[in-house]
Design a protein that fits this description.
elongated, five-stranded antiparallel beta sheet, 153 residues
Length: 153
């Protein structure tokens, strides 16, 4: 009776195939993770815009979302809570009311960029472009008539 087992050649072949599969799958997994971080950052920003709109309408006074690019955070003016973007995601540019501030000028502009929301539910027209390390981009846009924010590629 002969002992059963694998030959060294069979083991090497299996390891080679596993390595090839891992090489093909790894970029797909990292791209999916990056895309989900970008979408999560956009969803969090939309939620902050929505809260500012709601607070403005319910309180009967103007509210603003401010962006502190040096600290890489944003939040509602006058509120203590600030939001950070997920790792690998940053603000590429902010356009408020036709004035565009791109990534190179964001930290040099005097004052903090802000998007204002008014008690009647309207807001300043705004677009915030989020970018990720892998080159992905999402734009969070605020409709000036309704004050609602939407994210789009």
């Amino acid at each position: 009776m002969r002992a059963r087992g694998f030959t060294l050649l069979e083991l090497i072949l299996v390891l080679l195939l596993a390595g090839i599969l891992a090489t093909l799958v790894a970029p797909s997994v990292s791209g999916t993770l990056e895309s989900s971080r970008l979408r999560a950052g956009a969803a969090q920003m939309r939620a902050t815009f929505s809260l500012a709109r709601t607070l403005s309408a319910s309180g009967g006074r103007e509210r603003s979302v401010i962006f502190d690019v040096d600290r890489e955070e944003y939040g509602i003016a006058g509120e203590s809570r600030r939001h950070d973007l997920p790792d690998g995601v940053w603000i590429r540019s902010i356009r408020v009311g036709g004035v565009l501030v791109d990534g190179d000028r964001l930290s040099r502009e005097p004052g903090l960029p802000r998007v204002r929301f008014f008690p009647d539910g309207s807001a300043e027209e705004a677009e915030v472009v989020l970018a990720s390390t892998g080159g992905g981009r999402l734009t969070v846009a605020v409709d000036p008539l309704t004050g609602l924010a939407e994210a789009a590629r």
